[in-house]
Amino acid sequence: MTTQRVPDPGGAALRVPLRPPEQVMRLERMGSFFPTRLSFMPTLVRQICAEGWRFDRPEVALDENGWGHAVYRVDCGSRRYSLIAFSQALEPERRTDRVIAEAWDASFVLFDGTPTAEDIARLSTAVPNQEAARYRPTELVLSRANKSVRFFEHMVERLASGRQPDPSLLGGVGYLMRTTAVYGNGKFGIADRARIADRPELAGPFRAEMLTIYLIRCFTLDLVEHVARHRGGSRFAPLDRGFKRYLGIGNATGLGMAPFLASHPILIHNWMLARETALARSRSAPVADQGRRARFHALLERAIRHIGEWRVEDARQSQRIAVLRGELDTLRQRLGRGSLERDSEMPWDRLYRLAEREWSVEMQELMVSLLIELHPERVDDLSATMASHAETCFAPGMRLAELRALLHDRYRWAFTLDLEDPEQRRLFWYTSEEKLEPRLGDRFQEPGAEREMPLAVAVDAQALARALATASDTESVAEFLLRRPEFRSIVRRVQTVGRHPYAEIYDNLVAARCLPIDLLRCKLSFFGASKFDPKSDRWTRITLYQGAPLPDELDRPGASDWCFPSLDP
Amino acid sequence: MRLSLNEIEVTVRKAALGSGLPLGLAEDAGAAAAWLAARGFPVAELIGAALGTPAAESRMQRSGGMIRFLSEEGACSVLRVGPSACDLALASQALGAATAVEAVMDVPVLAVAQAVLASAGSGVPLTIATGGRPAVEVVEGAPTFLLEPSALAALRAERVRIAAAEAPGRHPPQSFRAEQEAALGEGVPVDPDRWRSIQGLADRMLVPATAHSHERGAGAGLIDSD
Fold first, then answer.
1. What's the sign of the alpha-carbon dihedral A315, A316, A319, A324?
2. Directed axis angle between helix A207-232 and helix A149-160, to 10°?
3. What does the alpha-carbon distance between residue A395 and residue A491 come to, in Å, rounded to a whole number?
4. What is the mean pLDDT of residues B31-54?
5. Chain A residue closest to B186 (CA)?
6. CA–CA dist A54, B113 (Å, integer)
7. What is the pTM of this model?
8. A102, A139, A394, best to mutate vs chain B, most B CBs in 10 Å
9. Higher model confidence: residue A272 or residue B139?
10. Contact call for residues A81 and A112 (beta carbons, < 8 A)
11. How many Å apart are CA A183 and CA A145, to the nearest integer?
12. Nearest-CA residue of chain A relative to B3?
């Protein structure tokens, strides 16, 4: 496949091509992504800062334990949105991050406008029950969270006695609450995405969900001070602003999120294309002036501190982090010897190629984030290209000769797989009857494979190739599908990938060695998540909005510059 | 009972799978259902009728510029033959041999939704006739109803003819703006009993839990009180 060349913002052809999908759309690489300045959280924060959105808290009805409700409101100029947060007592044995939970410390809904007392009364009985209740289109996003109990209590105890939290504990956890699900787009009767898609303030992918999480963070920071203030009385001390800014929102994410990347091909293509275009534009910058070099050094130091604070128990990720730290140190040493200054011609491309030549995939992808961060004027316009209104393409008039050529070109990776090997087909994705959530099963040991979700793309591609092998070149797709309707979905997929080359994952998602955690990290990196903390190969904890400006800091110069946060900035 | 459009699309897609349709046709069924729901059509009734039709075998007959789908048991399933009818009409135009496709379809208005969605982005205008009368013209996904939409929705087991059009668009397309705003603003009203039947078909695609799936299916097993 040919690599793409795209213009830079000025319209000139880029000197560096985009990395091809065969390189980018591999699980190992996708599972090494870091957030970039095109990720949805930093993009939202930039928009908030640029447009001067205003935040207030019109209603707080919390008792001394922090139980009750509060309303957080954001005024975007043309519209208002309100987060209604409900907080309740929860027995420790009922606190689980798994989606099978039925009660949470706190539950949330993003409301379209300012809720009335009747709205709040209605939602107070519904929202704590989450999926078990029904909602109206005035409700845009639904979520819930559990406390990080030991840390929350530590924080309350310290603030109540006039002290600040233990920095080592703060650095180790990084959040007061973890969300365990964030639902949008019509789930349980809440608003369809189409209701808000044409609103400029919510036009980007997952924009309403990202706004919700930002407001949840505000609630958790207020909640811990509220409880500590009641407990400590006159001894209470507010949380240090730097500590407060460091605290994000935790999230526990499992398999529910994984099939999304496969089931929204054009959207994923748009995300990836924007990211790869941003990288190519950054690598194509002809020179590195002194200011840009200084900025890169500063970003690198930030990244080194950030990675230095990234600690996980997972053996695979721990090993990768250790390697990454060593490589960052090597990069710092090389830059210290002036190698960047000597590279006068396309220095950022040289730096990227150095990473690709000598360092781990994780380091290469960290370099991608650094280079994109370095060139806001070259990349920021791309954030407007990341949404999608279409899911697939379909051309029934295409001749089978063309379809066959497309299939063998774009799915070359699938034809290298030996699907006679049971290990290449061992997994199947399904929706559980118990919680209506995606799960992974073993095709050869568990029932239900006949109801699997359509993620066995390589299997389908090979089956289509076999069927096409005996069909006439001149037959149309329409005629072929009339005879073989079972191939309708994969034909549509192949044609979609033909026009959108980053739409497909070039790996077998039903192979025994497939690691769903890689899918999760890819998607979460586009959200802007950091501190990936895998708890198995199927679920991970992450931190959201760590280091992001607080609502009263959003109008400060440089407020939106918060990538690679660390406790000691 | 009110539903979001996304709930309708996803549930109908799964119900179609649960009733035995191949994935691609099930995807089309879900999209057609959401399109109709957004425009005020009684979606649960229509989908219930379409999914309730026994899966009759149909065969194809070609005659000059006409393709006919014939079923030994009366009407053809629109969810099975409708997408192919649209494909063939669009493909024949693209390949320079305009062809009309005709069949007695169980729920004709679903063919209208399928034609609207199929034509979007193709650049090929389509006309749909029912019972021998022009019913709908579609240009770039925008339909002009020449028959009352409610009358079309009431049709069952009626002859439907889909063809690429030479010069349609003499009438302005219906926007269904009020219906779409109502669907997005208030949700789509559906009859609970009819919807329960559709949901029952969708539930056939669910996989019951096992001890192994509890232990391993989602990959977690922690009580998170840390």
1. negative
2. 50
3. 9
4. 95
5. A137
6. 43
7. 0.95
8. A394
9. A272
10. yes
11. 12
12. A189
